[in-house]
UniProtKB/TrEMBL annotation:
Top-rank taxon, per record: Bacteria
GO MF annotation: an example: cysteine-type endopeptidase activity
Secretion signal span: none
Name under which the protein is recorded: Peptidase C14 caspase catalytic subunit p20
Transmembrane segments: none
Domain annotation Peptidase C14 caspase: ranges: 41-292
Single Gene Ontology BP annotation: proteolysis
A Gene Ontology term for the protein's cellular component: cytoplasm
InterPro entries: Caspase-like_dom_sf, Metacaspase, Pept_C14_caspase, UCP_caspase_lke
Amino acid sequence: MKRRTFLQRFGSILAALGVAEAEWFQFGTRYRQALAQPSSRKLALLVGINQYSESPALNGCLVDVELQKEVLIHRCGFQPSDILSLTDEQASREFIEAAFLEHLIGQAKPGDLVVFHFSGYGSRVRVGNTPEATQNALVPADGIEESPQNPKIVNYLLEETLLLMLRSLPTDRVTAVLDTSYYAPTSILTAPLRVRARQTPPAAVLTGAELDFQKQLQEKASPEQPGVILSATSTPNQVAREIQYSGFSAGLFTYTLTQYLWETTPTITIPVLISRVESAMQQLGSTQQPGLLIGKKNQQRVQLNENFVLETTGAEGVVTATEEDGKTVQVWLAGIPPHVLEHYGVNSRLNVVNQAGATTQLIVRSRSGLTAKTQILSTENKTSPQIGQLVQEAVRVLPRNINLIIALDGELERIERVDATSAFATVAHVTSVVAGEQPADYVFGKRPDTKNKDLIASTSLIISPSRYGLFSSSSERVPNTFGEAGEAVKVAVQRLSPKLKTLLAAKLWRLTDNEGSSRLNVKATLEIISGIAPRAIMHRETLRTANPETINKKSANPEPGHTPTISIGSRVQYRVQNIGNNPIYCMLVGLNSAKNAIALYPWQKVTETEDPQEPQLIDITIAPGETLTLPQTTSGFEWVIQGPPSFSETQLIFSTAPFTQTLNALASAKHPRADQQRILPILNPLEVAHALLQDLHNASTTAADPNTVPADSYVLDVNHWASLGFLFQVV
């Protein structure tokens, strides 16, 4: 493309975007002045497309752009004027490519930091005369508009073209985030998560203009790929999904990525980042595996700070507006884990980060989606919070009446949905909703039983040749939840009732996650016991108290894009360390790969009792500076990982006060007693989960005025608890 032709086209693009050319070149003057400065610049192009003329609308792509923009500005130090966003109809193929050429390639210099983000549909398109000559492509807003003259031409942006544009940048500090996928599933369970992949008609071919543009790029692009490309999926058969919460939807990958960027430290490596993001996605019910599409040489050693320069301290959000009364402050809370944000209650408290050391505390009065309206509770100075100031969690308030939300799959017949709604209404602490209309924890659905195709209904109840059970929000079967073919819907729900209690218990203790915000200084490592020395598999520590220079050195680095794996039969243990100045107490709960609740039962013989032979459940106490292994057992009684192959998760929870009620709840189940610590099933998981939250509540409110503590909520203070989540795959 000739420069004159390009400038004419770019002028029309600016007009369509509502930007005058004079205004743009004023921007350019400021850019050139900035380039004269010795410090490097930071440029970003963010693309998000919800509205497509020929495909179902996506819901979360514009939110993705906001998520990325806010973290780039407030955590990574980007100037708002250096971030260009193209959304919906603005994001045509020509607009995206022109903006990339002018905003990124035309301005970047060696050493500058560049970020490109795309959220929208992806697809596969034929680029040659044979059906096999297909390539990955991003679908722009105008990519699937078929003209009457030639309905087989599509206007896609090839992934190969994007790679060439990235290679045309004069800097190697480049990050591309692609929250899309290319292979559309042939069938999918109705679920809260939309899929970002569409099927292109086999006869369709790519527009010649894209191939011409690609040919011009090939003549000038560098042969080496700079920086890193973070992809929402790591294998062709995976799909990028959206996640739905109250008030908003977002790309699952973008949300978990940006949420972790808000809280993490700059010295972690890119592979650790990918692994942590995948763990967060798995905890939200997805098997989607993000990965490095292309990375630098020695990518295992590439630190996050080389591509996302984290200039500010970790935080849960940022002040985005203040109202005229001087007391009401609006905050963006994208740094809070998504499953926690969904239940983040009124009266939660946030501290405004002030470099001068003065403390201003905000109290949450309402929340809509990612934005909360707060009021100034107290301040040590007379200045009000300013837009752009970061906020950190101080007190988390969670409602006591949290239910498990079950979506009814759209594939169920009407009478099946009626029966399921009626049956779930009789199960305590469970609410049923229509799949896709409201956020849900799991989906109740059916799958055909190929062994019983000829089974026929024989009673007035709903009898189906399919098997009823639970799916995750991304359509994965939940282990041990499917019954026999021919089972009635109401019978299936009754059968699932104990499992629903277990899944609700896990939901409750996951809400204690606060690795990013806790003020307790603790570390924990999951180890496999083998040979002479244990082998570290995963490492977690409270980030707000961690030493940034050492956190990555102690991290186990799994392969990028994959959750750590542990073989069935392996012996494992946790190594926990109290770095603080006061003793802390520890509790371990979790779900094994069969999705059954487990806990560490700290049995111990107490010689002071009347019957010294009768073991008791005794709090695990970790003294300041002390390191313990859990469970503490003798040879032959170690924690051995059992099947089936699936995902397993544990939550290590620490408190400044004893877990009195939790131990009482565990003891009330009348488990056979042992003379040492053991990992055993929890027979009453929901009671244990509520007792655990009550213990954390008690630890946090010992010094509070009882009249100020809401009776319908759990109140958790970050100075009094820490909760570290571990998720691994049993193979």
